[in-house]
Amino acid sequence: MSVPVKIAIAGASGRMGRMLIEAVLRDPATELHAAFERAGSEFVGRDPGEFVGQTTSVRITSDVAAGLQGAHCLIDFTRPEATLVHLAACQAAGVGMVIGTTGFEDAGKAALAAAAKTIPVVFAPNMSVGVNVTFKLLEIAAGILNSGYDVEIVEAHHRHKVDAPSGTALRMGEVVADALGRNLKDVAVYGREGVTGERDETTIGFATVRGGDIVGDHVVMFCGTGERVEIGHKASSRMPYALGSVRAAKFIRERANGLFDMQDVLGLRG
Ligand SMILES: NC(=O)C1=CN([C@@H]2O[C@H](COP(=O)(O)OP(=O)(O)OC[C@H]3O[C@@H](n4cnc5c(N)ncnc54)[C@H](O)[C@@H]3O)[C@@H](O)[C@H]2O)C=CC1
Ligand SMILES: O=C(O)C1=N[C@H](C(=O)O)C[C@H](O)C1
User: Which residues line ligand 1 (CB under 6 A)?
Assistant: First the structure.
């Protein structure tokens, strides 16, 4: 039997961190190698298995450099500023990264690309198979509905989400804009208020809903005259994000370096 993929998890007590701990512990091909939380967190020193009713020999730590020793991969769902600190530690330790954190500025994304020259990195705003298939459906739809259809993207998430629009909605915008030969940075409209004037047909609009415990809903509308096509995805659990991340961790174990996303992991590229 081959050696299990040794996975470290950053943001271990977060909504995604707990889900990842469950996914890693229940997969016989993976091993929970380390679990990280920020210094001062009430969870430092505790067994991450507690989140899923299990006992493990791992203890949550804020010492990322020490915890990465011997790991194959760090899965990070935290905040951009934390991910970039973890990225530097992974580079120093020669450990690959699976990054699900959203809300990066361009400079942060450039730092990820630079690090991927020396370590393998999977960076994707959504790790679920369903959302990644939805990206492909959007590419096909936009290529066909390329004239006479206004594109609007609506996303809804829980009350705790800190970035908007979601990383997934932005990627959906990029996929559609690319298929239409437009640059999202030039055509995106983020919310509307007051006397906005009539809609410019080249724009791609975004609307954001935040409330309760909504896990993640996305819909892209292609609004024509007398008809509307809607392509979307609704998550009712975070487990698909965790399972996709574990799949990505197995994928990067086979690679020395490079920047990948879930389209690469799932073989959907091209
Ligand atoms: N790519 C994907 O498939 C998905 C991405 N996400 C993204 O993952 C990120 C986390 O989401 P949630 O788990 O819901 O958030 P959360 O708030 O529940 O968890 C964040 C975790 O990061 C830790 N953290 C925050 N700042 C830190 C710092 N400076 N140093 C060390 N640790 C720090 C927190 O202590 C916490 O454990 C968000 O950016 C979200 O958009 C969420 C779900 C799916
Ligand atoms: O914060 C979340 O919860 C989610 N974030 C990701 C995003 O910003 O797209 C993915 C998913 O929608 C859940």
Answer: 11, 13-17, 37-38, 41, 77-79, 81-82, 100-103, 124-127, 167, 241
